[in-house]
Each structure stands twice: as structure tokens, then as C-alpha cells.
Amino acid sequence: MANTRFEDNQDDDVEEIGGSKPPYQTPKGVHDILPQDHDYHTFIKKVVRHRCRQAGFRRITTPIFEFTDVFARSIGATSDIVSKEMYTFKDRKGRSLTLKPESTAGVVRAYIQNGMNQWPQPLELYYIEPHFRYDRPQKGRYRQFWQFGFEVIGESDPALDAQVIFLSNKILDDLGIAQLFSLQLNSIGCLVCRPAYIQILKDFYFGKERSLCADCKYRLEKNPLRLLDCKEEDCQILAQIAPKLKDYLCEECKQYDNDVKEFLTELKIEFVENTSLVRGLDYYTKTVFEFWDKTNGAQNAIGGGGRYDGLIELMGGQPTPACGFAAGMERIIANMKREKIRVPQKDDLHVFVAQLGQESKKKCLPLIAELRDNGIKTMGALGKGSIKVQLRLADKFKVPYTVIIGLTEVREGTAIIRDMKVGTQKTVAFEDVVEEIIKLIGEENRDMYTPGEIVY
Ligand code: HAM
User: Fold this and answer.
1) What are phi and psi of 101, to 5 degrees?
2) Taking CA atoms, which of 21, 113, 324, 385 is between 20 and 30 Å from 429?
3) The pLDDT value given to residue 396
4) What is the DSSP letter of 422?
5) How many whole angstroms from 388 Cα to the centroid of ligand 1?
6) pTM of the prediction?
7) CA–CA distance from 91 to each of 68, 96, 428 (Å)?
8) Is 287 helix (H, G, I), strand (E, B) or coil?
9) If you take atom 9 of ligand 1, which residue's CA is the nearest one?
10) Could you report the per-residue pLDDT of 266-305, keeping only the tens digit for each?
């Protein structure tokens, strides 16, 4: 196989921080999501959940790992993902398992396994999940990355393709980055028209093999459609003059493609017809699309998807059409930051409770619980530091108010509320502390616990 797995240099496999390596680090290409990035993750999840719910989608989570065949069969054995990028391992009984590199395959497996064809169709499912690809780590390309995505299973209609694209675009718009991307659209035909085109493509490349990169020589043999989206310059020149699939679509695919474009126009979604767009996964039929960075092109597409009418049958189900989309969350966050978009940050504390001594602690513990129950984000310094040390700590946490309960306050049944910004303080009756703090932070800023009511 020309397209060999790239080798990892062992020394290269961990990331160096500031010249010296702490003894334990994440493997190359995987990252901690630190609190400041969780604000972005939380916001994206909120937007996705909201927009998907509005459109009738329900959430699904498939396992982190599946039998390897689930991916090999659906994504295609000759695709880059399956041939080079999967994290595959044997379990204790020698069965081959793989960390999911994408979610469509698992969703299709779940659809068939759980008899979801009996549910009302089309079935609309969405997911927000980590995925794993042994990709070459670089900006926007990681070995563990998050995707949100959705699948519409059970019906074939150009209006559905247009809706999936509309929803994808809507979410990018809500996240403030839609304007950075151009929608690239193509049709890669169906099992009726594609085989004849592939023969025409092979004939075109006959005698030109020497101009192709090593990967494309392999593609010519195993997966010729992928010749069209090679990033190598020489291969691109050839791809540009190669016969176009759109000229060989059957009548049905041609009509379908025209209808998708008509619906998109109706929905006021701009698109670029891109006859080289084929996508890196083998399961697609008819519509394929990607959102490309307007400045970087195909590099680091933010998301992509398309129709996959043959996949469910290929995986052992009844013939069932479907289409879907997925986007990379790290790339979305990078673009939100590039646009200087800030998201709501709800972790800031309202109050710090400082105490002195055992008796004071006894008063503070129930007070902290009561403050929290009232939606006041509260941090209690329950260690042994002096009041001065605790106030310094309160400053570091950037709290607007500190409640101080020292020996005098315990004796007198009072508490001191200190405005940390201005430096002023006042004494209030202990039983009035919660009410006073609510007044100070503002009713509307309370963080109430409202998960909804449980029913027995
Ligand atoms: P995909 O194009 O392979 O499609 O991935 C979708 C998105 O995931 C990419 O556009 C990119 O933003 C992100 N992504 C992929 N690989 C990486 C990586 N190594 N690091 C960071 N982000 C990455 C699919 O996965 C299909 N399942 C989409 C789909 C759903 N088609 C139909 N339904």
C-alpha cells in the first residue's frame, strides 16, 4: 500500500512545555479542556441542543468504541480514516475494537440494532461527542476532538438535504462565525451513474500516473473519486481538467441536485458549486457539502456532510435513505476566538465567606449552604488562615463581596458584609445576610438550580 501510516517519533509524542517536560503529559494531539474553554463548549452545546430540539431532533450517544468492522465497512477500507487514522486495539478475547473516528457509522449501527425503522420516520438524531483519529497533529487537527452532528434517517427528499444544510448554517450563525465560511456543494451521484463515471475518470488518468503523488497512485487503483480532492499541486492541476461527475449524473441525480439548489436559494443560503468536492468518507451518495474557511479553502473545513442512501443497507438494514452533517468543535472555538467572540461566563463567584475559629465555622457552614440554595455562588474559606489571609484569598478569587464572621459577630449574632471593590463594610443581623446579598448582587444575577421537577 503506497499510503502508509506515518511513523511517530517517540520523543515527539509528548508536548514540551516551556522547555522542560513535567513527568506526565497528555499524548501528542490530545488536550485538556480547561475551564475557560469549557465556557465555549457549554455555549456551543446550548446552541446545538436548542436548534436541534426546535427542529424535532432527539439526542443519541453511541459508545466510544465499536467493533472495528462497523467503521471499516461504512467509512470504507480504503479511506484515509480507516487505512491510517483509527485507534484500533484488541480486547482480552482478541476481538478488534476501534475508538470512534466519527459518529455516522455508530448511529447507523444503532438504528438497525434498535429497530428504529419502526419509529416515526424520518428519524432525526443529534450528538455531541468526542472522536478519535490518528491524524497528524497540527492547528485544528487533533487526535481527540469533539464534533456535534445530526442525522436525518428514513426519507429521501432534496428538501431534507436543504434543511440539514440550513440547520448547520443556522448553528454557525448563532455562534457568530457563519460569515467566515463558504458553503461548498456538489453531487457525487448514485450507484447507478457513479460506476460509469469512475471508469471515465480512470481512463482519463491512464498514462498520467507518473504525475500523481504516491497517495493518488494508490487512490487511482482503490478509490479513484478521491483523486479529485488531493491537496498536492500537480494532482490538483490534473483534477481540474479531469472529466466532471456533474456531466455524467443520471437524470434522477441531476434533478435531485437541481432541487437541492433551488431549495437552498429559497432559504437564502449562498453556496459555491464545487465539482471537486467528494468528501473523505465512502458512504456518500448524491449531495455532499462542506463549510470552507473563506481565507484557507479546504484546509480545516469547519464541518461537512451529505446524503448516504446506501449505508443502512450496506450495514445490514433495510434499504433506507439518510443524510447528515458534523462539525468540529475545536475549530469552531478557534474561529470564535479569532472573531473575538466572548461567551457568557457563569463561573464567577458572588460571595466569599471568611471565618475565624471553631464557633464561627459552625455558623458559616449552614450559611454557605443557604446562600448557595438561594442562587448565590459562594466560596467558603474553611481553613485555618487569619482573616487577613482569607481576605487576600477573596481578592484573588475576584469576588465582589465577602461575608466575615469572627468571634465578635458570633457572640452578637451578626455578620460583616464587605464590598471588595470599594473596601467599605457594614454589619447586618446574621439572619439578614442572604437577603442583603441578594439585594447587592441583584435578583436577576442569581444562579438558581432549576433542573425541572422529578415525578415519582
Ligand atoms: P468529517 O468531515 O470527517 O465528517 O468531519 C466533520 C468535521 O469534524 C470536520 O469538518 C472537522 O471540523 C472536524 N474534524 C475532523 N477531523 C478532525 C481532527 N482530527 N481534529 C479536529 N477536528 C476534526 C464526518 O465525520 C461525517 N460523519 C459527517 C457526517 C454526518 N456526514 C453525514 N452525517
Assistant:
1) -85, -15
2) 385
3) 93
4) T
5) 52
6) 0.92
7) 11, 7, 63
8) strand
9) 303
10) 999 999 999 989 998 999 999 999 999 998 776 779 999 9
Q: What is the pLDDT of residues 183-224, one digit of tens each?
A: 999 999 999 999 999 999 999 999 999 999 998 999 999 899
Count other C-beta atoms under 10 Å from residue 228's C-beta.
24
Helix (H) or strand (E) holding 378: strand 378-380
* 272-273/181-187 β-pairing: parallel
CA 328 – ligand 1 centroid, Å: 6
Distance of alpha carbon 144 from alpha carbon 99, whole angstroms = 10
Ligand 1 atom at minimum distance from 85 CA: 19
| Ligand 1 proximal residues by C-beta, below 6 Å | 102-104, 133, 135, 140-142, 145, 147, 149, 151, 280-281, 301-306, 324-328, 330-331
What is the amino acid identity at position 73? R
Mean pLDDT, all residues of the chain: 93
Which stretch of DSSP H or E encloses residue 304? Answer: strand 303-307
User: How many angstroms separate the alpha carbon of residue 299 from the centre of ligand 1?
Assistant: 12
What contacts 24+ positions apart, CB below 8 Å, involve 110-118?
110/60, 110/62, 111/153, 111/312, 111/317, 111/320, 112/312, 112/315, 112/316, 112/317, 116/153, 117/154, 117/317, 117/318, 117/320
Query: Torsion over CA of 273, 277, 282 and 288, rounded to 10 degrees?
Result: -20
Q: 109 CA to middle of ligand 1, Å?
A: 18
Mutate to test the pocket of ligand 1, among 79, 139, 141, 147 (most ligand atoms within 8 A of CB): 147
Take residue 115 and report the three cell numbers written for it.
429497530
User: Alpha-carbon torsion 230, 233, 238, 244, what sign?
Assistant: positive
Q: How confident is the model at residue 1 (pLDDT cuts 50, 70, 90)?
A: very low
Nearest ligand 1 atom to alpha carbon 291: 10
For residues 162 and 286, is the Cβ–Cβ distance under 8 A? no
Give me the residue label for grid cell 467528494: 278
Looking at the CA of residue 143, tell me the nearest atom of ligand 1: 19
- Please name every residue paired with 292 in a beta bridge, in sequence order, or none if there are none: 182
- Which of 145, 175, 290, when mutated, tests ligand 1's pocket best, judged by the most ligand atoms within 8 Å of its CB? 145
Q: Output the CA 280–ligand 1 centroid distance in Å.
A: 9
